Automatic annotation (TrEMBL):
TM region positions: none
Region named Disordered: 36-62
Keyword terms of this UniProt record: Coiled coil, Plasmid
Source organism of this protein record: Borreliella finlandensis
Coiled coil ranges: 69-100
Family annotation (InterPro entries): Borrelia_lipoprotein_PFam54/60 (IPR008421)
Keyword set includes Lipid biosynthesis: no
NCBIfam families recorded: borfam54_2
Protein name: Complement regulator acquiring protein 1
UniProt cross-references to Pfam families, sorted A to Z: PFam54_60 (PF05714)
């Protein structure tokens, strides 16, 4: 092959490469001139119309979100105030119970080697004593029931579920939620506020269900199960197994 032909091939190759580079760098609209041939630009009669509509919509959403947050915050503050007042009342009533010498939960142990923690016991008292309306008769009946079950070590887990899992668990969560409210609902995001409101309402409902269940238990005990360990154990296993097995608050 002659030198001239080689030069021609080199030139053609270089030209092809340059052409491909140009094509790859060219906008698609320029590669295909027919692509936009039938596309007519939209006539804008009012240049600010689209922008204004978008701003209005954004404004509506923002106002709506703000309103929801205000409503949620207001509801949380109301619940917080009610819980604070309730806690003060609990302190007064529990002090009276202690003074009148029927505060059995201060020294109550499920098992002989259980440790008594004052903070834990107080949370249990807040739940159980308030559920029994702080009445001496009701509190002493609950003590009788627990003492009957306690005689058999096989029933210790039944008592533990009522006292620690349910009663303490409810009060602990309510107090944690109250702290969040007291720290300032304004510091919470919209999702955090909604989640907190749903959770605290759910826990308060569980507390009402426990109250309903406890009072039903006292009725059953008065009617036909006094000193009947087996029936009491079956009753507790049915209704105090978990939060979900408590009786409905209203029915």
């Amino acid at each position: 092959m002659t030198k001239a032909k080689l030069n021609i091939i080199k030139l053609n190759t270089i030209a092809m490469i340059l052409t491909l580079i140009c094509i790859s760098c060219t906008p698609f609209s320029k590669i295909d001139p027919k692509a936009n041939a039938n596309t007519k630009p939209k006539k804008i009669t009012n240049p600010g119309e689209n922008t204004q509509n978008f701003e209005d919509k954004s404004g509506d959403l923002s106002a709506s979100d703000e309103k929801i947050m205000e409503t949620t915050a207001s509801e949380l503050k109301t619940i917080g105030k009610e819980l604070e007042d309730q806690k003060k009342e609990e302190n007064i009533q529990i002090a009276k119970i202690a003074k009148e010498k029927f505060d059995f939960l201060s020294t109550f142990k499920v098992g002989p080697y259980d440790l008594i923690d004052e903070d834990i016991q107080m949370k249990i008292k807040r739940t159980l004593y308030s559920s029994l309306d702080y009445k001496k008769e009701n509190i002493e009946k609950l003590k009788e029931i627990l003492e009957i079950l306690k005689k058999n070590s096989e029933h210790h887990n039944i008592i533990g579920r009522l006292i620690y899992h349910i009663s303490w668990g409810i009060q602990f969560q309510i107090e944690q939620d109250l702290k969040l409210i007291q720290n300032g609902v304004e510091n919470l995001s919209q999702e955090e506020s909604k989640s907190l409101l749903m959770r605290i309402k759910s826990n308060l409902e569980i507390k009402q269900r426990l109250k309903k269940t406890l009072n039903e238990t006292l009725k059953v005990y008065n009617q036909n199960t006094q000193d009947n360990e087996k029936i009491l154990a079956e009753h507790f296993n049915q209704y105090y197994k978990d939060f979900d097995t408590l009786k409905p608050a209203f029915y």
